[in-house]
From TrEMBL:
It comes from Miscanthus lutarioriparius. Pfam families: Lipase_3 (PF01764). GO terms for biological process: lipid metabolic process. The lineage of its organism: Eukaryota, Viridiplantae, Streptophyta, Embryophyta, Tracheophyta. It comes from the Eukaryota. This is Fungal lipase-type domain-containing protein.
Length: 262
């Protein structure tokens, strides 16, 4: 049995990465700014000094496909940060409606049983995103040494961040890459989720109980391999109310779609 070693490794992993949660959160949301000068100079009023010493290497903007990301080097933890922007506010409602009808329509390369979401897959692999990110990582590692890589993203940006982390884990090794996403949608079927967990074990998906996006595209247990399925591991943010007391909780799970509908 490997249950105990897996749990021990998870606790070690979480004790390290959860301390970095605030920094990852800032990186994931700072990328939403439309002021590229502010982004490049890292003058974010909400960062409160946490980004001191952070160096932006490249801002990647794909106007045609409405995509934006940046690559930079953080002093603490000393690592390369890749952050993907999610859906712009003016298009969120249409994007959510669209996700209800998205089908699994692409077989992931090298995995004949792994099906993924065509739009998310294409947004990373078939646009300027992948080429520019790989170029920036190579430059950063040549300049600063073989730094570990942290990939973050929110909502749709979490989907792109996941494909990016998988790509980088295959390229540089799973020990070199960590992924943290916030409110990301499902991106593949159960076979893909298993494959992803094997390739990117240092993963945390942060979801909130009132966020609809992690429920999309929908999961249907009776469709087996032909439905979308989240990969592990989830940190679920939820609230419990006892009289006039509201308690904010964090639940860490290895994840099983059948245990909850999110």
């Amino acid at each position: 049995m490997v249950v105990i070693p897996t749990i021990i490794l998870l606790l070690i992993f979480l004790s390290n990465t959860c301390l970095q949660l605030g920094l990852h959160y800032i990186n994931a949301f700072q990328v939403y700014t439309s002021d590229l000068t502010s982004l490049f100079l890292w003058t974010c009023p909400r960062c409160k000094g946490h980004t001191k010493g952070f160096e932006v290497i490249e801002i990647i903007v794909d106007v045609e496909n409405c995509l934006q990301a940046f690559v930079g080097v953080a002093p603490d933890p000393r690592s390369i940060i890749i952050a993907f922007r999610g859906t712009q506010q003016h298009s969120v409602s249409n994007w959510i409606k669209d996700l209800f009808w998205k089908q699994l329509d692409v077989t992931y390369p090298g995995m004949p049983d792994a099906m993924v979401h065509h739009g998310f897959y294409t947004a990373y692999y078939n646009t300027t995103m992948r080429y520019e990110i790989l170029k920036s990582i190579k430059w950063a590692r040549k300049t600063y040494g073989n730094l570990p890589i942290n990939v973050v993203g929110h909502s749709m940006g979490g989907a792109l961040a996941s494909f990016c982390a998988l790509d980088l884990s295959v390229t540089f090794g799973s020990k070199e890459v960590e992924l943290m996403t916030f409110g990301q949608p499902r991106i593949g079927n159960p076979a893909f989720a298993v494959y992803f967990g094997e390739q990117v074990p240092r993963t945390i998906r942060v979801t909130h109980q009132n966020d609809i996006v992690p429920h999309l595209p929908p999961y249907y247990y009776y469709l087996g391999e032909w439905t979308y399925h989240h990969f592990a591991r989830e940190v679920w943010l939820h609230e419990s109310i006892d009289g006039n007391v509201v308690t904010r909780n964090e639940t860490v799970g290895l994840w099983d779609e059948r245990s909850r509908s999110s």
